[in-house]
């Protein structure tokens, strides 16, 4: 669940532009993950963003620790190249 979102708008994105979003894990706490985003339109930065996300227990609706398997995957892949999604 996203509990915090910060978005910094820089320039408009037009419908005919190619948009790329790069995402990286910027912080890993006991209860939260912080992600940083860079949104580019035709190669130029159009916006940057940061989210803080937590895991919620479906039965109790309370925040729970980041699962160990997630934590392992993040630590193993954190230093790899930034992932881009078209």
Task: Describe what you observe in this structure.
With 86 residues, this protein is mainly beta. It has a single domain (2-71), classed as Thiol Ester Dehydrase, Chain A (Roll). Helix content is 12%, strand content 53%. The protein has one helix at 68-77; strands at residues 2-9, 19-28, 32-41, 44-56, 63-64, 83-85. Strands 1, 2, 3, 4, 5 and 6 form a six-stranded antiparallel sheet that branches. It is elongated, with a radius of gyration of 15 Å. The two termini are 23 Å apart. Residues 82-86 have low confidence and may be disordered.
Secondary structure topology:
Elements: E1 2-9, E2 19-28, E3 32-41, E4 44-56, E5 63-64, H1 68-77, E6 83-85
Antiparallel strand pairs: 1-4, 2-3, 2-6, 3-4, 4-5
Explain briefly what this protein structure is.
The chain has 86 residues and is mainly beta. It is 12% helix and 53% strand. The protein has one helix and six strands, in the order E-E-E-E-E-H-E.
* Strand residue percentage: over 45%
Q: What is the H/E string? A: EEEEEHE
Sketch the major β-sheet.
6 strands, antiparallel
CATH hierarchy, class: Alpha Beta
CATH architecture classification: Roll
Total tally of structural domains: 1
* Rg result: 15 Å
Low-confidence stretches: 82-86
Percent of residues in helices: 10-25%
Classification by helices and strands: mainly beta
Distance N to C terminus: 23 Å
Number of helices: 1
Averaged pLDDT: 91
CATH superfamily: Hotdog Thioesterase
CATH topology: Thiol Ester Dehydrase, Chain A
E-strand count = 6
Organism: Natrialba asiatica (strain ATCC 700177 / DSM 12278 / JCM 9576 / FERM P-10747 / NBRC 102637 / 172P1)
InterPro entries: HotDog_dom_sf
Protein name: Thioesterase
């Amino acid at each position: 669940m996203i509990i915090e979102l910060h978005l910094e708008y820089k320039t408009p994105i037009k419908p005919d532009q190619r948009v790329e979003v790069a995402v990286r894990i910027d912080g890993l706490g006991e209860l939260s993950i912080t992600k940083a985003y860079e949104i580019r339109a035709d190669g130029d930065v159009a916006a940057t963003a940061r989210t803080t996300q937590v895991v919620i227990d479906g039965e109790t609706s309370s925040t729970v620790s980041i699962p160990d398997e997630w934590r392992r995957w993040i630590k193993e892949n954190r230093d790899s190249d930034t992932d881009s999604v078209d």
